[in-house]
C-alpha cells in the first residue's frame, strides 16, 4: 500500500481523509491462525463465521472471557462478546445497558436507542439496543443478557446477531436449542429486511475508504476520487442514496474533485451534503462539511469565504474536543501522542488542528504572517495530545509553515521547512507524489533565493520519483524546474545543449488534472475490461510488482541507520524487484503495444528524432500562470528551449478572441491581431528551428488545445484581406499530438492499416428522451447537464454526409448505419477492425461541458427500451476496448475539440478532454483523428472532404491532404463564392490529431467530413 499506519491516517481531515473505522479504536487481536479459530456457524446471510479469544477491556465488572467473531472473511470482528463476573439481576442489567462503562464505551462509537427488553431462544432475559455506527452509518446491534457467572455483553453487525446469541448462550452451531425462536432476532427482522448487509459490505466500504485515505496521503486525488466513489456506491446500495450517513463519503469525494479544479462537480456534491450533515450519526459531520467547504473555497482563491468557513469549522469541532485539551501549550514539532479513548474526540481534535492549518494558509496568502504562525503553533499543540500519523500530518504542517515563511519574505526559512517536510513524506509515502511535489516546492524556493545548484538538486530528486512512479505534477511546478535550468544555461552556455535536452524531458512531467484522471481510468479499464486475458494478467503482474517495490522502498526508509549488511541485502532485493517490474512492463507492452500511451513516460529527444521525418519539427508548449516554455525538437535531435512571456490566462484571452466569430457561426471579422499575437508569443521564439520545416507536430497545452494551429498568422494581416494572409498553414502541414511519447508510440507501431475494407460510417443518431436523460442526470446534481444534453438534438445532415462518403469510396448501403441502429452495441458488432476509415458523425460530450460526464464520450442512439441515457454515451474507457486497424477515425461532431475553458473556468478543459478521447482511439488501433473545433459549414465540409480524399488517393498523407484542401478553400473558393470561404470559420475548423495515413503505396482510402451541429 502507498501509506502505512492506516488506523491513524484516517484522522487526516485536512487532506480529505475520513475518520478511522470504529474498530480502529478497539482492542482487536485479529484471526491469528486457523488453529486459534473455532467454527461459530453462519450468520443470517449464510456467511461462515469463526470465533476466537479476544482481548478483554475494562468494563463494569471483571471480564472472565472475551470472544470475537469473524464472518465472511472480514478481518475486523463482526461481533464481540464479553462474559463478566458479577450480578445478573434485572437492575444490574438495566444499569449496564442504560449508563454503565460498557454503554459509555459503545456511545463513543455508536448512536444507540433505548434498551428494549426481549428474550433469547432459551428464554433468558435480554436487553437489545438498536444502534448506528457514527462513522459510515452502518446499522449495529448491542445486547445485554444473563450468563453463568454474570452479565454477558455483546455488540456487532445485525446479521451477526444469530452468532452473538450462540456465543452468549454457549450454544453449539446446529445444537438442539439453536433453532428455538428468539425474540431478539424478531426485533431485528424489520431492519434487516429493509437494509440487509453483511460483514463483506462493511469490509468493502472500509477498504475503499482506506484506499481513499492512502491516495490522499500520496496527494493522488485522481485515485482517491475513484476510491471514494466506490465507498459511496456501497453505502448508497445498502443504506440508500438519501441516508444522511453517506455524508462522509460525499464530502471526501467533493474535496477530491475540488483538488482537481473540478469546482462545479464539487459544488454539486457539497450542496447535497448540506442536507445530510446535521442528520448524520457522526456528530463531527457538520464541522467536516464546513472544513471541506473552506478548503474548496481556498482552492478557488475565495479567501474571505474560506476564512469564514474554516472559522465556523473550528467552532463546530471545539464542541467535541475535551476542554482540558483546548488551551494546551505547544511542543516542538516532534509530535508526541497521548491516546484518547473516544474516536469522536480524536476526530474533532485533528479536525480542529487541520482547520487551523487551513486558516493559517489563508492568512499567510493575505499577508497576516504572525497570525498564521500563531495558528500553526496552536495546531501543533493540539496534535501533540493525540495519536496520528506524525509523518504525513507533520509533513503537511511543515509545508504550510514554509508557505507562511515564504509569504513573509523568508525564503531561507521556507527552504529549511520544505526540506524537513520532504523527509517526513519520504517516511510516510516514500517515492510518491507528495514527496516529489514537496521537493519541487523546495527547488522553487531555492531558485527564488538564487541558489540554482541547490534548486536543481531538489528538482532532480523529485524528477527521479516522477520518472520511477510515472506520475505528474502541476504545470507551474514543472515550469519552475525549466526556469531553473534556463538560469543554469545562462551561467553555463557551454552546457546549453545538454540542459535543453533535460528541459525537454522535464516538460513531460507536467500534466493537467483531466489528463491525469483519464490516464488513471484508462489503465484501470485496460487491466479489468479489455476482454484480452493476456493483457489483464500482464497489467495485474505489473501492478503487483510496483506495489511490492513501494513496500521495499518503505522498508528501506524505515530501517534508518541499519548496518551495511542489512542495507546491502535490502538494496539487492530492491534491484531484483525493479528488474521484475521492468519484465512485467515488457510483458504488458508485448500484449498491448499501445499501453505506454496510458503511462507517463518521458520520450527523450533522441526517441523523438528517430520517428521524425525529414523537414519535420516537433514543438511542445507548456503554459503556467505567469510564463511558459516552448521546446522544439528537430529531426537531428537538436533541442531549442525558450521561455515565453505569455501565461495561460493571456493565451486563453487570445484564443477566445480567435474563436469568437467561429462560435457565432462565422459572424463578424476574424481577429487577425490576436492570431498574430499568439504566433508571436508561442512560436516566434523558436522560429530558427522551424525554418524550412514542411510539417509541424504540435503538442499544445491548456487553452491552446482549443484551436487548430494552422489558423495562427506568422505576420500582420487585415481582416478584409484573408486570402493573402500569412497563415501558418501556408508554411507547413500541421499535426496535433497528445504527447511526445504518444507520437513515438504511434509511429513505432504498424505503418499503415492492413484492413481489407475502405470505410464504415455511422450517423443521424436518435437522441435520448428527456426522461432517459433525467434518470442519468439526477436533478440534485446534474439538472443543468440534463438541460444541456437535451439541446444535443438530431443531426439529420450527417445521413447525407455518410452516404456521400460511402458512395465516393464505392461502398454499398451495408457500410452506413443510421438512426436507431447507431448504438454502442452496433459499434461493437460491426467488426471495426476490418475498416481503414471509421466515420462517427455525431455529437461528443466532453468533461468541462457537462460536469456529470466524467469521461469524454461519443453520443450514440440509446438501445430500444433503455431506462436511461447511460448506454447512449460511448465513453473513452469503452473506446479502449474496441479493436481497430484504422488509418483514420473521423469524429464529425459539433465542437468536437471544444472551447478554451470549461464550465468551471478551467483553462483548456474541453480540449484536454478531447486529448483523452484521442488517446482512447489511438490505443484501440487508430493512427489519426480528424476533428472539428467548431460547427463547420456543410458546403465547406463537403468540399474539404472530397478534396482531401482525392489527395490521399494521390498518396498524400492525411495532414498534407487536409492542408491541400484548406489552401484551396482559402485561395480559390474564397475568390469566387459567397460567403467568403477564406474566413477561417469555413476552412480552419478541421484538425488532425495524430498522423492518420502516412505516404505509402497507393490504395483506396478516405476521410469524412465534419458537420456543424
From TrEMBL:
SUPFAM superfamilies, per the entry: TPR-like
Coiled coil (residue ranges): 535-587
Span of domain CHAT: 673-995
Keywords assigned by UniProt, alphabetized: Coiled coil, Signal
Signal peptide: 1-24
Name of the featured protein: CHAT domain-containing protein
Amino acid at each position: 500500500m502507498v501509506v502505512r499506519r492506516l488506523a491513524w491516517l484516517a484522522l487526516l481531515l485536512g487532506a480529505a481523509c475520513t475518520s478511522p473505522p470504529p474498530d480502529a479504536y478497539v482492542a482487536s487481536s485479529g484471526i491469528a491462525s486457523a488453529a486459534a479459530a473455532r467454527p461459530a456457524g453462519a450468520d443470517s446471510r449464510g456467511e461462515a463465521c469463526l470465533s476466537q479469544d479476544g482481548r478483554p477491556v475494562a468494563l463494569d465488572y471483571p471480564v472472565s472471557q472475551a470472544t470475537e467473531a469473524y464472518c465472511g472473511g472480514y478481518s475486523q470482528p463482526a461481533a464481540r462478546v464479553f462474559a463478566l463476573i458479577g450480578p445478573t439481576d434485572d437492575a444490574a442489567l438495566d444499569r449496564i445497558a442504560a449508563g454503565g462503562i460498557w454503554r459509555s464505551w459503545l456511545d463513543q462509537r455508536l448512536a444507540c436507542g433505548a434498551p428494549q427488553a426481549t428474550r433469547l431462544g432459551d428464554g433468558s432475559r435480554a436487553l437489545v439496543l438498536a444502534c448506528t455506527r457514527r462513522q459510515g452509518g452502518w446499522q449495529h446491534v448491542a445486547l445485554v443478557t444473563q450468563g453463568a457467572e454474570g452479565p454477558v455483553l455483546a455488540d456487532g453487525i445485525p446479521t451477526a446477531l444469530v452468532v452473538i446469541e450462540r456465543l452468549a448462550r454457549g450454544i453449539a452451531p446446529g445444537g438442539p436449542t439453536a433453532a428455538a425462536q428468539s425474540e431478539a432476532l424478531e426485533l431485528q427482522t424489520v431492519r434487516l429486511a429493509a437494509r440487509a448487509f453483511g460483514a463483506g459490505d462493511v469490509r468493502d466500504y472500509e477498504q475503499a475508504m482506506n484506499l481513499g485515505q492512502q491516495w490522499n496521503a500520496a496527494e493522488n486525488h485522481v485515485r482517491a476520487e475513484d476510491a471514494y466513489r466506490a465507498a459511496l456506491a456501497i453505502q448508497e446500495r445498502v443504506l440508500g442514496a438519501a441516508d444522511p450517513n453517506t455524508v462522509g463519503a460525499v464530502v471526501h469525494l467533493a474535496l477530491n474533485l475540488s483538488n482537481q479544479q473540478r469546482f462545479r462537480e464539487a459544488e454539486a456534491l457539497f450542496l447535497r451534503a448540506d442536507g445530510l450533515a446535521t442528520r448524520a450519526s457522526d456528530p463531527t459531520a457538520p464541522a467536516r462539511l464546513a472544513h471541506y467547504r473552506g478548503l474548496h473555497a481556498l482552492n478557488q482563491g475565495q479567501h474571505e469565504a474560506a476564512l469564514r468557513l474554516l472559522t465556523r469549522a473550528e467552532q463546530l469541532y471545539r464542541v467535541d474536543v475535551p476542554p482540558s485539551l483546548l488551551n494546551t501549550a505547544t511542543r516542538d514539532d516532534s509530535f508526541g501522542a497521548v491516546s484518547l479513548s473516544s474516536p469522536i474526540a480524536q476526530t474533532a481534535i485533528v479536525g480542529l488542528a487541520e482547520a487551523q492549518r487551513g486558516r493559517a494558509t489563508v492568512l499567510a496568502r493575505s499577508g497576516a504572517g504572525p497570525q498564521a504562525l500563531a495558528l500553526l503553533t496552536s495546531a501543533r499543540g493540539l496534535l501533540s495530545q493525540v495519536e496520528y500519523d506524525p509523518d504525513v500530518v507533520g509533513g503537511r504542517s511543515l509545508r504550510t509553515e514554509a508557505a507562511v515563511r515564504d509569504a513573509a519574505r523568508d525564503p531561507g526559512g521556507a527552504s529549511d521547512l520544505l526540506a524537513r517536510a520532504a523527509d517526513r513524506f519520504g517516511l510516510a509515502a516514500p517515492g510518491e507524489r507528495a514527496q516529489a511535489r514537496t521537493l519541487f516546492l523546495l527547488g522553487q524556493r531555492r531558485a527564488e533565493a538564487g541558489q540554482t545548484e541547490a534548486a536543481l538538486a531538489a528538482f532532480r530528486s523529485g524528477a527521479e520519483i516522477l520518472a520511477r512512479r510515472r506520475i505528474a505534477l502541476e504545470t507551474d511546478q514543472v515550469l519552475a524546474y525549466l526556469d531553473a535550468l534556463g538560469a543554469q544555461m545562462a551561467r553555463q552556455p557551454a552546457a546549453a545543449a545538454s540542459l535543453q535536452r533535460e528541459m525537454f524531458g522535464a516538460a513531460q512531467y507536467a500534466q493537467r488534472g483531466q489528463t491525469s484522471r483519464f490516464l488513471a481510468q484508462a489503465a484501470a479499464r485496460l487491466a479489468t475490461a479489455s476482454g484480452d486475458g493476456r493483457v489483464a494478467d500482464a497489467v495485474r503482474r505489473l501492478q503487483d510488482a510496483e506495489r511490492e517495490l513501494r513496500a521495499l522502498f518503505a522498508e528501506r526508509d524505515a530501517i534508518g541507520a541499519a548496518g551495511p549488511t542489512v542495507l546491502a541485502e535490502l538494496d539487492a532485493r530492491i534491484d531484483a524487484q525493479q528488474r521484475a517490474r521492468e519484465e512485467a512492463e515488457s510483458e504488458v507492452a508485448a500484449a498491448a503495444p499501445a499501453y505506454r500511451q496510458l503511462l507517463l513516460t518521458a520520450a527523450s529527444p533522441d526517441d523523438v528524432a528517430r520517428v521524425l521525418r525529414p523537414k519535420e519539427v516537433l514543438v511542445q508548449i507548456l503554459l503556467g500562470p505567469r510564463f511558459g516554455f516552448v521546446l522544439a525538437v528537430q529531426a537531428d535531435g537538436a533541442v531549442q528551449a525558450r521561455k515565453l512571456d505569455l501565461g495561460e490566462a493571456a493565451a486563453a484571452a487570445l484564443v477566445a478572441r480567435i474563436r469568437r466569430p467561429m462560435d457565432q457561426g462565422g459572424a463578424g471579422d476574424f481577429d487577425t491581431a490576436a492570431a498574430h499575437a499568439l504566433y508571436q508569443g508561442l512560436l516566434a521564439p523558436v522560429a530558427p528551428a522551424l525554418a524550412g520545416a514542411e510539417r509541424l507536430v504540435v503538442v499544445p497545452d491548456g487553452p491552446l488545445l482549443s484551436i487548430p494551429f494552422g489558423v495562427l498568422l506568422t505576420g500582420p494581416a487585415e481582416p478584409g484581406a484573408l486570402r493573402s494572409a500569412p497563415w501558418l498553414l501556408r508554411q507547413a502541414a500541421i499535426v496535433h499530438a497528445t504527447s511526445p511519447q504518444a507520437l513515438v508510440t504511434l509511429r513505432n507501431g504498424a505503418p499503415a492499416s492492413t484492413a481489407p475494407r475502405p470505410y464504415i460510417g455511422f450517423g443521424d443518431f436518435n437522441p435520448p428522451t428527456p426522461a432517459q436523460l433525467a434518470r442519468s442526470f439526477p436533478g440534485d446534481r446534474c439538472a443543468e447537464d440534463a438541460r444541456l444534453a437535451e439541446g444535443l438534438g438530431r443531426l439529420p445532415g450527417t445521413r447525407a454526409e455518410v452516404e456521400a462518403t460511402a458512395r465516393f469510396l464505392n461502398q454499398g448501403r451495408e457500410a452506413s448505419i443510421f438512426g436507431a441502429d447507431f448504438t454502442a452495441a452496433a459499434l461493437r458488432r460491426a467488426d471495426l477492425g476490418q475498416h481503414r476509415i471509421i466515420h462517427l458523425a455525431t455529437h461528443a460530450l466532453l468533461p468541462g461541458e457537462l460536469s456529470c460526464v466524467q469521461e469524454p464520450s461519443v453520443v450514440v442512439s440509446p438501445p430500444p427500451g433503455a431506462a436511461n441515457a447511460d448506454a447512449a454515451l460511448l465513453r473513452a474507457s469503452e473506446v479502449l476496448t474496441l479493436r481497430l486497424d484504422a488509418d483514420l477515425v473521423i469524429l464529425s461532431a459539433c465542437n468536437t475539440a471544444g472551447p478554451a475553458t470549461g464550465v468551471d473556468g478551467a483553462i483548456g478543459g474541453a480540449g484536454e478532454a478531447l486529448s483523452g478521447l484521442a488517446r482512447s482511439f489511438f490505443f484501440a488501433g487508430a493512427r489519426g483523428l480528424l476533428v472539428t473545433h467548431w460547427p463547420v459549414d456543410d458546403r465547406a465540409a463537403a468540399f474539404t472532404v472530397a478534396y482531401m480524399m482525392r489527395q490521399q488517393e494521390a498518396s498524400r498523407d492525411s495532414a498534407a491532404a487536409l492542408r491541400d484542401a484548406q489552401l484551396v478553400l482559402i485561395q480559390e473558393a474564397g475568390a469566387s463564392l459567397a460567403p467568403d470561404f477564406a474566413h477561417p470559420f469555413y476552412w480552419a475548423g478541421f484538425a488532425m490529431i495524430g498522423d492518420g495515413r502516412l505516404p505509402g503505396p497507393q490504395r483506396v482510402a478516405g476521410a469524412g467530413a465534419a458537420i456543424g451541429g
